Request: fold
Amino acid sequence: MTFREYLDNLSGKRVTVVGAGVSNTPLIEALLAAGVDTTVCDRRTRSELVEAADGFARSGAKLRLGERYLDDLQADVIFRTPGMMPSNPALTEAAERGAVLTSEMEAFFEVCPCKIIGVTGSDGKTTTTSIIAELLKNEGGNVHVGGNIGTPLLTGADGMGPDDVAVLELSSFQLITMSKSPDIAVVTNLSPNHLDIHRDMAEYTEAKRNIYRNQKSTDRAVFNFDNEPTRAFAASAPGEVLFFSRHERVRDGVYLDGGMIYQEAGGSAEAIVSADSILLPGMHNVENFLAAFAAVRGLAGRDAMIETVRTFNGVPHRIELVRTHRGVSYYNDSIASSPSRTIAGLRAFDKKVILIAGGKDKGIGFEELGAEIVSRVKTLVLTGLTAERISAAVTDSPGYSGSPPIFIRGDFTQAVLAASEAAGEGDVVLLSPACTSFDRFRNFEERGDVFKEIVAGLV
Reply:
């Protein structure tokens, strides 16, 4: 089915789009251009949406904005924003009245004319997705990057060719209602995450399973052999399974041995490249390359792999070197919105760092992070809603005896300045919050951008 045909099938139906954000705006515009009866629902008011709301209204959209935007949804088809769980009472009531619940990403799976590679996991999704895309581009392929990153792909699906590849970063919120799976599914790892939104770890895990649950026998799933929950997925995968590991030699997949990355099939191993050649710091980034290499087996060769290792220098907000000022290196790891991600960031450096952390709670404990901070942090600066909780996790850690010193600052700018004042030549200042940004910022990108602006202004 083409996207044009998909829109034609919506003719005569009442369509509601919940959320007028970046991912849904092109969809809304396409629906209106096709003459589909479209209602746009958003918690923001008309004065907050400004030009977007006026544009939708001029094109014929009905607007339901403000606090009561979900009251009594009457629709045949509802596109939910990825940030809204399908268990939302307003959505479940609409479904009970016969509405079909879907999303922009689910619609893309219906109309995409080319191979889809999907990446999910608790950590490393964005970097692994970006590496896979670079590998395919270096092989000469025509690649479309979307999902949680890149641009919304649905409305451009009819312009894609059958030999193209769509590479998607997929969150648990997108996957939870998915009834289709990508041709190649990658799960980087699995650890507690988003438990402030998911009912429990079981629901979160089941959502992740959807990335491979509906694959065909000819499809491929790539799992992290070193991560027990992810390794266990292999038993229920319908198609080919490839593992990646930095600790074990895997018979079918990609692994690290003696500092060299190998790919192996049926007992025959081929050396690809030295892990020391990877430009990104940290063993977790070696894992991201291992996963990406396994994903593109048969699609990209060794030359493309070597070229990607040689040139790929990372993704913004992911242990991004912002500036070296007065001998101090400042790194932006604003993407680190969970304790496990911050732990990986701390382990990326071979010295103790000055850490800036804190934000909005995700429903995950900080005990493990507290112990890691004691062993890997020189000075700790905390800010945001979770500052006191993280501080308690550090001081309650069995190894804590007054080090690192802990500073709590209510203002984000003051937190960055406090970290700068504590740093001396040769030090690393790392923003790696272990929490979401939603206590102060719209998203982690804004938080990282503000950090970079403050650092750029240091004199």
Summary: The chain is about 35% helix and 20% strand. Residues 106-311 form a domain with the UDP-N-acetylmuramoyl-L-alanine:D-glutamate ligase fold (CATH 3.40.1190.10).
